[in-house]
Design a protein that fits this description.
The complex is a heterodimer of chains A (106) and B (865). By secondary structure, chain A is mainly α. Chain A has four helices and two strands; from the N terminus they run αααββα. The chains are: A mainly alpha (106), B alpha+beta (865).
């Protein structure tokens, strides 16, 4: 456990959830990260990251509407919490500050 | 799109096999969806591989083990780099696992697997004290008393017999098969349901009921050609007709070690085997079992049965024996539970100890090779440490390699076991109806053994390979500074251990081989090939008629090929074993009763004194003949003739001590048996109720056997004579000993092979490490002979230490072997000497080759490097 900070994979997962806008569940998150990073991602890792993010209150889950593809069953969806949104924004600011410093040196 | 899961069934079950809690529905749908997407985009093969990776990632311990695949890849790389050493380690381990697994599968079939019946745990043996030990056999009338009045249990009875079964009246040549007579409620109570036809019911077991039998499924398929039309037809039991009314399901065998081929009601005993009719007044004993009903406990059931047995409500005149003092219940769930628990646990423990020894040997061998591998990899390990790998990670790497080795060897070992188990079963004379195939329990055992041995092989190298400090590890130029002294000491310990185990097994094999040779070479002490034994199938009513034996002997003597005929209480290979007490010491000897013609018929020489006279036999006079070994043991050089056997107490003592009138040559089968020291012969009168054996010497045994049977049947239509050529029996007996010798030789060969491989591997490796040092020695003047002598001497030292330990163990603990060998002592110098010679020469061969190779190298090439 990395305390309140996010590990790299957790960050990617959180970003994926943000990108999905309330349509996030296991499969799309996995597909999103795999396509964005070009590396293989296992479902176990995705589930674990979503669990940890929920524990840290960066995402919350809710039961979605019934979908025909799921045999009419409702599924658990994820969306970012306000704190989660704050976290991604602050991570982005940190990275942009660093990049600005790097580019200023060139 | 439908809601059906598109996951193929071949992999879908995997997902159902892991606990997922309330997430199950989501996870299963996610996996199905991904599989569908991936197989659409990249094909089913890709989708399956990814499915498996996702599946593994779900299992927490594996998920945390992120480097698993990397470890496996490194492990396989190692296997590719040292194919020879790894192959030797794997094959050795596979052979050991195979041997161990097949022995365990037999142990499982014979002792551990519950009997096939409904709820085995509620079935008990009902015992009463017999010679102060609990005994499960009861007089028939007492069984009926228990059965009728018990309320907490269902009480059943059985009587084990053998019989010849044929589908025609001519039962000539039919093999004797186990035949169980049972009370009418036996099969129903224990769960013997019919596969075809019907089972036995209470109405079959009433006096006068038409005789019926049911066959076991194994018998039906193996002896009756699985012919369903036989059900309802007549078959012949020892020539007597009975109706085959059903075949019992293969899911039943009942609480008996030797699975029965047929069951028949006790009431048919009279018709089928010409025994006494089973009525209240029969004197025959039956084995009693009880199933405790769901309402009762075993303790309550036992006290109820005791109360019933103690308070027999029948008139005192009808009750023959005193009521038993205590009734106890013993679990009859498995062959090793209950009454036989202790002796069987002892046997199990002994076998498991042997298994452990063989396995430890294979592990030591594999560990040795792994250790050599670990030492050459000290540099690699140092490098990985320097690059930031944690020690834990490196240990894990080595453990993963060990596990990989163990599992590969385990897979091969199971294949070995599949072939070996039936061979061992027939070598140990396990009845063919006992199923020794590998079941789940055996497979789990094999996996545990494989994992344990893999870990065992890895743990030592892992501990020692990773402990060294970073700098020395990095400095270690392979081949120059040698290895850490600790690893080399550990390897010497392994070599010594292997040598010790090998020498123990080699001596055991040599002793058993000497036994087999002695038996074969020494002969039997009598001319067995021309001897016949004539018995009746059971103590039948007609055989018990006074005068039958006399008239049967006259009939047999009249057969043209017959030279002599005589009477003996037992067959020459079957004698009663008696505990004898003499001057406070307790001895065991065999006792048999014979008539005056017996010694001449058998060809047993009377060494001193004389044989029985006709009068002594007729009156069973208090005289005895002893065999040579008994005389040697009890009389210490004093002439025994005319001495009373005073001070020798043969239990039960009924009459005055007999006087010794003669000494008889020892019969080899008694000497090679281990329970007793010799034979005591007493006269047998013709009045004894137990049908004796008629021993016949005849010119052409096989032809004579047929002629005798025909003649006896003509004279006594109710007789059921069985003739056997004694030589065949003796041959079987010798065969058993030879088989033991062959098996132990094979085990010792395996051990020796492992030891030689281990010694060779270690020596070759150590000498390779010392190439630099050897070069220096040669450069400063050592000759090649000096080098070879030095290396061989140093390499053989641990072997010599192990050899000394092993021989000491044999000398101190050899008595354990005494019950398996005969004709040679457990400290037989020839056996021990030859075993030492074999081990020393094998070890020399393993050591000399690499030493000479090292000494042939030009020192300049080594020193220049």
């Amino acid at each position: 456990m990395k305390g309140a900070n996010l590990g790299e994979f957790e960050e990617l997962t959180l970003l994926a959830v943000c990108a999905m806008k309330g349509e996030a569940y296991g499969v799309p998150v996995q597909q999103f990260i795999e396509k964005a990073t070009g590396r293989r991602v296992t479902m176990g890792a995705v589930y674990a990251a979503l669990d940890r993010l929920e524990d840290k209150r960066h995402v919350r889950s809710f039961m979605g509407e019934a979908v025909q593809m799921r045999g009419g069953k409702r599924k658990r969806l994820f969306e970012p919490t306000a704190e989660g949104m704050r976290m991604v924004k602050s991570l982005r600011q940190v990275r942009e500050r660093i990049w600005r410093a790097i580019e200023a040196r060139r | 799109m439908t809601g059906r899961s598109p996951l193929p069934r071949s992999i879908g079950w995997l997902l159902r096999s892991v606990p997922l809690g309330d997430r199950r529905a989501d996870v299963e749908h996610d996996f199905a969806e991904l599989f569908e997407v991936r197989s659409r985009e990249r094909g089913a093969g890709y989708a399956t591989l990814r499915f498996l990776a996702d599946f593994i990632s779900l299992i927490p311990p594996l998920r945390r083990h992120r480097g698993l695949f990397q470890d496996l890849r490194f492990g396989l790389r190692l296997f590719r780099k040292h194919p020879g050493a790894i192959a030797i380690a794997t094959i050795g381990l596979a052979l050991a696992i195979g041997a161990v697994t097949s022995v365990y599968s037999i142990l499982n079939a014979v002792l551990l697997r519950p009997y096939k019946m409904d709820d085995p745990s509620s079935v008990y043996s009902v015992t009463q004290p017999m010679h102060s030990r609990p005994w499960p056999e009861w007089p028939y009338d007492r069984f009926l008393n228990l059965q009728r009045r018990a309320t907490l249990t269902d009480v059943v009875a059985s009587l084990y017999e053998t019989a010849r079964i044929a589908t025609t009246q001519e039962s000539e040549g039919a093999e004797e098969v186990p035949f169980l007579f049972v009370s009418g409620n036996y099969l129903g109570t224990l769960g013997g349901r019919p596969a075809i036809g019907r089972t036995l019911v209470a109405a079959d077991d009433v006096p006068g009921a038409p005789p019926v039998v049911v066959a076991s499924y194994f018998t039906w398929t193996s002896r009756l050609n699985a012919d369903a039309s036989l059900v309802g037809k007549t078959i012949y039991v020892n020539g007597s007709p009975a109706t085959l009314v059903g075949v019992i399901s293969a899911a039943f065998d009942g609480p008996i070690f030797q699975p029965s081929a047929y069951w028949a009601p006790l009431s048919a005993f009279d018709d089928l085997l010409h025994g006494q009719p089973f009525t209240e007044s029969t004197t025959t004993h039956v084995e009693v079992h009880a199933r405790v009903r769901p309402a009762g406990s075993a303790a309550a059931a036992a006290s109820e049965l005791q109360a019933i047995a103690a308070n027999d409500q029948r008139p005192a005149a009808a009750v023959k024996a005193a009521a038993p003092t205590s009734v106890e219940l013993y679990s009859a769930a498995t062959p090793s539970s209950g009454l036989k628990a202790i002796e069987n646990y002892a046997a199990t423990a002994a076998i498991l100890a042997l298994i452990g020894l063989v396995l430890a040997l294979a592990c030591a061998n594999a560990a040795n090779l792994m250790l050599a591998g670990a030492a050459t990899r000290i540099r690699e390990i140092g490098l990985r440490l320097a690059l930031g790998a944690s020690r834990r990670r490196l240990v894990r790497q080595l453990v993963t390699e060990g596990l990989l080795l163990g599992l590969i060897a385990g897979g091969l070992g199971v294949i070995v076991a599949v072939g070996l188990a039936p061979m061992l079963a027939s070598a140990f004379a396990i009845p063919p109806a006992v199923d020794v195939s590998l079941d789940m329990r055996v497979l789990i055992f094999a996996i545990v053994v494989a994992v344990t041995s893999g870990l065992g092989a890895a743990i030592a190298p892992a501990r020692y390979g990773v402990r060294g400090n970073l700098v020395t590890a990095l400095n270690a130029q392979s081949g120059q500074t040698g290895e850490a002294p600790r690893t080399s000491r550990l390897r010497k310990v392994f070599v010594a251990f292997q040598a010790a185990v090998s020498i123990v097994l080699l001596i055991g094999a040599a002793l058993l081989t000497r036994t087999a040779l002695k038996i074969t070479g020494a002969g039997l002490g009598f001319d067995a090939d021309r001897l016949l034994a004539v018995t009746s199938s059971v103590a039948s009513a007609s055989v018990e008629q006074p005068g039958y034996i006399d008239s049967a002997i006259e009939t047999i003597r009249a057969v043209p090929l017959v030279e002599r005929a005589s009477v003996s209480q037992y067959q020459p290979f079957g004698m009663s074993v008696e505990r004898a007490r003499l001057d406070g010491g307790s001895y065991t000897l065999y006792r048999s009763r014979t008539d005056e013609e017996y010694f001449a018929t058998m060809g047993l020489q009377i060494v001193r004194g004389r044989g029985f006279t006709r009068e002594e036999v007729a009156t069973e006079a208090p005289v005895t003949l002893l065999s040579e070994d008994v005389v040697r043991r009890y009389f210490n050089g004093v002439d025994p003739i005319g001495q009373p056997l005073a001070g020798m107490e043969i239990a039960p003592a009924r009459q005055a001590p007999p006087t010794v009138i003669g000494v008889v040559a020892e019969m080899m089968p008694n000497r090679i048996r281990t329970e007793g020291y010799g034979v005591m012969y007493l006269p047998i009168s013709r009045k004894r109720s137990n049908a004796p054996t008629i021993v016949v010497r005849a010119q052409h045994p096989a032809a004579a056997a047929r002629a005798i049977e025909t003649a006896l049947l003509q004279a006594h239509p109710r007789a059921r004579p069985i003739t056997e050529v004694i030589g065949a029996d003796a041959g079987h007996y010798l065969q058993e000993k030879r088989m033991m010798a062959a098996l132990s030789t094979a085990a010792a060969g395996l051990a020796l092979g492992l030891a030689v491989l281990g010694i060779y591997g270690v020596t070759a490796f150590v000498i390779g490490q010392r190439a630099h040092e050897i070069g220096v020695r040669m450069a400063i003047g050592a000759s090649r002979a000096d080098i070879v002598r030095l290396l061989v001497g140093q390499s053989l030292r641990p072997v010599a230490i192990g050899l000394a330990i092993g021989v000491t163990v044999v000398l101190l603990g050899g008595q354990v072997l005494a019950s398996f060998i005969a004709g040679v002592g457990p400290r037989d110098p020839i056996a021990i000497g030859s075993a030492i010679v074999i081990l020393v020469f094998s070890a020399l061969a393993a050591v000399v080759a690499p030493a000479r190779r090292a000494a042939r190298v030009d020192p300049v090439t080594i020193l220049r490097v």
